[in-house]
């Protein structure tokens, strides 16, 4: 069987957790392949909201194997808290969670490096989640990092000490001192806990499963516009957030890739710094933030809000080979009489384009909008696509025509149940 992959097409927080949870029952394995505790994936069902950071969103189904792949950077302290929260809610994840021995370890000193590096950037800061993501991936690529498998080695403590010494020097270079405080003890306790779990060679596990006809869903974190190569560099995260990242982050060959679900909001949001061509800095932006409860699942920061941006969606669809689209949070736009869609950009040269320029400095791009009638109907009680208002169907058809990919899921509320499946439309 193939590996299907779900990828965020914008700047993250598209609703990946919700849709992975909805799709999960038809899969045998759900796997995370990149990112780490910078992610915050929200799931809502039976009146309860859950936020996952490192644990895959298939964890609430006991029969599904959940894998933290080699491409992930894992913080043992955050992980332990996540496991405890699940336990408190009656979910024992110890039997259906598998962690790659090749996943990278986030040390307490990585988090300090993240903060120190952001402080040094001053007004040019990335707006990192300060979870240690950048420094941990730097160590991985620099070939000095530590991996989950190392916690089983006799010289684990030695290797840890050596790496922390490196970090100490870097922190001192920035004119600060490395004070790990209670974090170090919490780290070692969490590592002890990790040793009791299923630490595996997940590349073998997943490839065996595929050979045996099992279905695998890979759960992306962040979004395509935060990809380290193709995102709005340098205001990106430090991993490959695209479909290609699932190959290296799980050890799956490209020929095994099946469906690619591209997930996006009916509008657009971003947390942290960096360009955002359709950002609304006015009361309309505030209205969307309020209606959509657009505050970060990981850091609680208010999310920047704007209209949907088709040039950037086309770009993400191209890079990922998206086969079906999932449109999220359309219910949030119910209050608007008209809804704007950015179809093209006007560049300073006067050129009109639907492609992303090499560097998208928001000041240099003027979004060109088409305005569509709003639907003005509460969507979250609607249970069938046949009951959807015409204006809403027209909105989806408009997007499908521009993007040339069918919208197969329309999400109209945070709950698992507020999910409408659509036939693959024939796109003209
Ligand atoms: P992720 O990081 O892509 O998993 O997304 P987040 O969980 O960070 O952010 C999505 C937010 O929108 C969460 O609070 C979800 O509960 C919520 N959400 C998801 N789908 C819908 C929807 O269709 N309508 C509304 N109103 N909220 C939704
Ligand atoms: P999910 O999986 C939204 C953003 C940060 C910052 C930039 C770099 O929930 O969609 P990092 O901590 O990775 O070094 O921060 O990336 N960012 C996210 N924004 N959703 C996320 O994850 C994000 N993970 C990182 O805000 O701008
Ligand atoms: Mg999120």
From TrEMBL:
One record GO biological process: 'de novo' AMP biosynthetic process
Residues that coordinate or bind GTP: 12-18, 40-42, 303, 329-331, 411-413
Active site, renumbered: 13 (proton acceptor), 41 (proton donor), 140
Co-factor remark: Binds 1 Mg(2+) ion per subunit.
Residues holding substrate: 297-303
Subcellular location: Cytoplasm
Reactions that this protein is recorded to catalyse: IMP + L-aspartate + GTP = N(6)-(1,2-dicarboxyethyl)-AMP + GDP + phosphate + 2 H(+)
Broadest EC class assigned to this enzyme: ligase
GO cellular component terms given for this protein: cytoplasm
Record keyword GTP-binding present: yes
Similarity comment text for this entry: Belongs to the adenylosuccinate synthetase family.
UniProt function note: Plays an important role in the de novo pathway of purine nucleotide biosynthesis. Catalyzes the first committed step in the biosynthesis of AMP from IMP.
Alphabetized PANTHER family for the sequence: ADENYLOSUCCINATE SYNTHETASE
Subunit architecture: Homodimer.
NCBIfam families: PRK01117.1, purA
The name this protein goes by in its record: Adenylosuccinate synthetase
């Amino acid at each position: 069987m193939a590996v299907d992959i779900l990828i965020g097409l914008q700047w993250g927080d598209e609703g990946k957790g919700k849709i992975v949870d909805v799709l999960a029952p038809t899969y045998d394995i759900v796997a995370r392949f990149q990112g780490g505790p910078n992610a915050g994936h929200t799931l809502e069902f039976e009146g309860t909201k859950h936020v996952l950071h490192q644990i895959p969103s298939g964890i609430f189904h006991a029969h599904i194997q959940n894998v933290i792949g080699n491409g992930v950077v894992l913080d043992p302290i955050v992980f332990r808290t996540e496991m405890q929260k699940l336990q408190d809610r009656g979910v024992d994840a110890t039997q259906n969670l598998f962690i790659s021995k090749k996943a990278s370890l986030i040390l307490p000193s990585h988090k300090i490096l993240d903060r120190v590096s952001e402080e040094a950037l001053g007004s040019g800061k990335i707006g990192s989640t300060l979870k240690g993501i950048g420094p941990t991936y730097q160590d991985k690529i620099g070939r000095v990092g530590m991996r989950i498998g190392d916690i089983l080695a006799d010289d684990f403590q030695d290797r840890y000490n050596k790496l922390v010494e490196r970090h100490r020097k870097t922190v001192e270079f920035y004119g600060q001192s490395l004070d790990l405080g209670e974090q170090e003890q919490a780290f070692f306790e969490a590592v002890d806990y990790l040793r009791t779990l299923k630490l595996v060679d997940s590349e073998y596990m997943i490839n065996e499963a595929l050979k045996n006809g099992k279905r695998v869903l890979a759960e992306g974190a962040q979004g395509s516009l935060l990809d380290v190569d193709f995102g709005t560099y340098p205001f990106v995260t430090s991993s490959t957030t695209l479909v290609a990242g699932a190959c290296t982050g799980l050890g799956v060959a490209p020929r095994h890739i099946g469906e690619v679900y591209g997930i996006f909001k009916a509008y657009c949001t971003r947390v942290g710094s960096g360009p955002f061509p359709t950002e609304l800095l006015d009361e309309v932006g505030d209205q969307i933030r309020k209606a959509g409860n657009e505050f970060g699942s990981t850091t609680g920061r208010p999310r920047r809000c704007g209209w949907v941006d088709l040039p950037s969606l086309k770009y993400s669809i191209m890079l990922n080979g998206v086969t079906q689209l999932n449109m999220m949070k359309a219910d949030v736009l119910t209050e608007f009489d008209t809804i704007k869609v950015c179809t093209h950009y006007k560049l300073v040269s006067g050129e009109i384009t639907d492609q992303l320029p090499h560097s998208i400095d928001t000041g240099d791009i003027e979004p060109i909008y088409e305005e569509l009638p709003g639907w003005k109907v509460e969507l979250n009680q609607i249970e069938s696509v046949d009951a959807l208002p015409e204006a809403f169907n027209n909105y989806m058809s408009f997007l499908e025509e521009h993007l040339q990919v069918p919208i197969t899921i329309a999400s109209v509320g945070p709950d698992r149940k507020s999910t409408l499946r659509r036939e693959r439309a024939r796109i003209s």
